[in-house]
Amino acid sequence: MTALNIILISLIQGITEFLPVSSSGHLILLPALSNFADHGQTADVAAHLGTLAAILLYLRRDLALMVTSVLPLTKIDGASQHLVKLLILASLPVILVGLAFEILSPSILRLAITVALANITFAGWLYWADRQPVTHMLHKNDGGYDWLQLTVQQAILIGFAQVAALIPGASRSGVTMTMARQLGLDRLSAARFSLLLSVPVIGGAVILKTINMFIAEAQPDMPALAAITGLSFICALGAIRWMMGWLTTANFTIFVLYRLALGTLLLSLIMAGIIS
Fold it and tell me: In terms of residue numbers, what domain contains 129?
């Protein structure tokens, strides 16, 4: 694996994992738009491990409160316990459907046309959802979040929306934020809940991909994988902080325009026969 491979994989995974622009879609496009070979299972594991470390660091206080809230002999934190329940319920749909997709592995999900159409389609939904009025302002003036306002029904709906992220180009972060905005959550709360939801999903993906890697008896290039993990971590942490800062004063339109431009460009390249 060349240094350019390592840098591009790390940048794409790190920057796009938590933004509503589809990391998997970009990673699929890397070999399609260049002479690089498919980056493979081991690079996927390393990149996801880096982004997982970034989100664990960024959400360390939230996660610590949730862990202590469910431990015996600790002070009961009703809001954190409620959040734990919501995250479990919201994660179940994508875990169950994702296992089925992992077994079936439909080839249509690896096509550039799928990525192009998904980007355009889900960009339209994000634009529409982001125009909905805020009816649930969970973000508080002190920087915290009132998760007790988020209902079980809303969390489950966001969880079912997350299933659409199995389509490359749909974006896990994108569909969860979109559904949250559709349900009336403010932008920062929608983004925060999406980040929290990423922990079990990315953690599960790392475990599953690692198992598959060992089953395939792959011989990993450890220095290259360590570099991917480290660079993905740095890029992901920077992207998270930028996005949350951006959403304090702006909306999702910048992401909508990017996805429309990307989808249109891909369709043009496909029609021109440059990619297939």
Answer: 3-271
Q: How many structural domains does the chain have?
A: 1
Asked, for residue 255, whether it belongs to a domain, the answer is yes
H or E stretch at 250: none
Tokens matching residue 146: 């009132």
- Pick the closest to residue 49 from 169, 223, 227, 212 (CA basis): 227
Residue 228 lies in a domain: yes
DSSP for 187-240 reads: HHHHHHHHHHHHHHHHHHHHHHHHHHHHHTT----HHHHHHHHHHHHHHHHHHH
pLDDT tens for the chain, 276 residues: list them: 778 888 888 998 899 999 999 877 677 677 666 666 655 667 878 888 999 999 999 999 999 999 988 887 667 778 899 999 999 999 999 888 877 776 776 666 678 888 889 999 999 999 999 999 999 999 998 889 999 999 999 999 999 999 998 888 899 999 999 999 999 999 999 999 999 999 998 998 888 778 877 776 667 678 888 999 999 999 999 999 999 999 999 999 999 999 999 899 889 988 988 777
User: In terms of DSSP H, where are the helices of the chain?
Assistant: 3-16, 23-32, 40-58, 60-70, 78-104, 112-130, 152-162, 172-182, 187-215, 222-246, 253-271
50 within 8 A of 230, measured Cβ to Cβ: yes
158 assigned to some structural domain:
yes
d(CA 1, CA 231): 15
Question: Is 276 part of a structural domain of the chain?
Answer: no
